[in-house]
Amino acid sequence: MGSAKKRPRGRPRKKESKLSTWMDSQGLTRDAVAERLDIQRTYLDKLCRAESRPSLELAFDIEKLTRGSVPASDWLAVPAHKGDRR
Known about the structure:
By secondary structure, the chain is mainly α. It is 41% helix and 0% strand. The protein has a domain at 18-77: 434 Repressor (Amino-terminal Domain).
């Protein structure tokens, strides 16, 4: 038997991000992470799908929460808004 943790049930993700992978590895729900970061769950969903870029302050809060697993610099490649062209 494998000891690998399985992702919680739900729809399969179209796109994995470092943040969503980290949350799965820690066994944390999106609700719990959103509460720790003091943001809305829907906004966290957009961050997990890389559809939105957090503010610099939030990016550093995410880096701190993940103990460096999701560095603030990773968010530079994400467009500020879904419609941005980069």
